[in-house]
Design goal:
3-stranded antiparallel β-sheet; two-stranded antiparallel ribbon; globular; 51% helix; 2 domains; 305 residues; mainly alpha; 10 helices
Amino acid sequence: MSAIDKNLTEQGIPIPDRVMRAAPLFVEYAVEEVKGDTKENYLSRPWFRAIHNPIQKWYEAKYGVALRRPPKLFSGVIEIHGVPFQLEVPAQLRRLSGEKGVAWLVVPIDVEPEENPEDWVANPPNFERMSSNERTVVSQGIGKVARSLRMVDCDLQTALKPDDISEELAKNCFSHLMASAEYLASGPHQSLGLSCWEAHQGVEQVFKLMDRQQRSDHLQIHELKNLFANVEGVAVGVEKSFIKVIPSSSRIIKIRAGEGDGVNLHEAYRIYQAALGAIRECCNALNHKMRMRNAAFKLKQAPWL
């Protein structure tokens, strides 16, 4: 097991993924024969429990809580009382089915009945002191941001990506968008420039992904208005007002470096919102292998657990 785990470390396999990566390697290289059975389709064989469970315990003893998979959360930001608050939006829900050993994995777009958007605000304000109307407006605003983030993630996952560069553009687009929210909500004034820079980068990446879908290449430029003009015919739903809010490439470089005219909190929040809207609509307009909206997958517990 030490040799197998060393190999997985060298491959950069995340710790929570290692049990199910190590067990097949153990079967392939350490198990020569299974008396009265076969190694074929080993995941469905009862004897696989005798391999999986000791490996699970070995990893628990070595890595402890690091073996647990953290929940997948999307970083967003919402303005409350004029102050940006960070959002941590769940990407998935687990819903019991009523059948033993069976559950539903839900990949929502909308706010589901069992969800409360207020729970997604990290270090929240005192919601109890808000008026009913104010609280409703804030909750709806949180839900709107959450829906946009969930749509972007689903659409980027299912978008057609003609090559490795397209894969990187899709991955980086969402990473930049979430980084923008995190910088904006972090508070210090110097982080506002970084928030705007990340927002600009996210929009740039998605425009280049759209371009690459159309002609297997993309413009080697950074000016958003020119990148948008190049894909405007397929960027259905993307408003020009989004692009006008986000600074030019020359200004965004100065903002990131803290040179020239900076940005205040209100402008930085407007830039984030514009980037979120532009990326959401671009991702919706991409060509997709399939379209996923509020999908649910029925999962059955593995026989060897």
